[in-house]
Amino acid sequence: MSRFVTALNEQIAHEFAASQQYVAIAVNYDQDTLPQLAGHFYRQAVEERNHAMMLVQYLLDAGLPVAVPGVAAPQTSFADPIEPVALALAQERRVTEQISALARVAREENDLIGEQFMQWFLKEQLEEMSSMATLLKVVERASASNILLAEDYLARTTGADEEVDPSAPRAAGGAL
Prior knowledge:
The protein is mainly α and 176 residues long. It has one domain (3-157): Ferritin (Up-down Bundle), CATH 1.20.1260. It has 5 helices and no strands.
């Protein structure tokens, strides 16, 4: 099996782990009756799960082996409302490094199809890091006076205008 296929299967685990971490963050905010923050992270969890399923579908389409992994338990307790978003930003940075490494491996192996497939994920990661960095700044500012200001920010900036990216790879089982 090529290094790219092995790394792609490992990335499936990373994406499922990211999804689980976002569920844990969402539950934390839900327990604190912060529905906008909770909803944001529930949506992020579904998005990460779908990223894993896109990787699965790629492997299925290419007739390559798929390993559906177990993942470690996510962090579930946080010291304050800032810590979960800081953790999410660190996670997005780590996933960006992982995706970049995957693209490099595909290039090194002269797997042009694999390299092209990874381009969408690279673009997606830039968006994810940027939006999470912005949210972290908002939550940090809001926490100094009133975390409900972060709720207001999310209520004003997310929701109805979100569209499905038509260039996104197909996810196994369909996007949910």
